[in-house]
Design brief:
Elements (H helix, E strand, L loop, with lengths): L1 H9 L5 E14 L7 E3 H8 L19 E4 L5 H11 L8 E3 L3 H10 L3 E6 L9 H7 L3 E2 L1 E3 L10 E2 L3 H5 L6 E8 L4
Parallel strand pairs: 2-7, 3-4, 3-5
Antiparallel strand pairs: 1-5, 1-6, 1-9, 7-8
Length: about 180
Amino acid sequence: TEKELEFFHSKGRYPESVKIATDAIAFIINPTNADSNLTVTQVTDIFSGKINSWKGINPASKLSEMSIVFDNNKSCNERYVREQIVTNGGLPSNCFAAKSNEAVVDYVSTHEGAMGIISVSWVSDRDDSTYKAIMDKVKLVGIIDPANKRRPEMARNPYQAYIYDESYPYRREVFYIRTGLK
């Protein structure tokens, strides 16, 4: 951000950045939750506070109140939601932070109305034992994005192919930043 650049410049440092990867955030829910697909509009409405219960997603839902959990208050996941989804910087009162990504998974796995936000790296390697342990406890939310050029009605999970072809909407670039002296 401009504020961050000003800080570095005040210290005589001039950062250079190079994009090295594309990452994404993943939404996870309790396996008993039948509403495993959300539209981009619903996600925006959840984080703006317009929707705060699962009945707001699906009136026939057996679940009521929705709680949203991040890994911590200053994480890149929370920042992404504030800056890219909500854009006004605020989060609704049903959002809170756990202490780690593992705590997010544990909370979601034991609370039917919870939705967690984690980095896709936790659920991207199907051969990894961590992936298997997480997916035994929770399920991924698919996102329906009408802005998709191909099959806009199809839900995309945060899989590498959908991140690569940009059909999964909640992507973010990862940069290597060097803060060398001038």
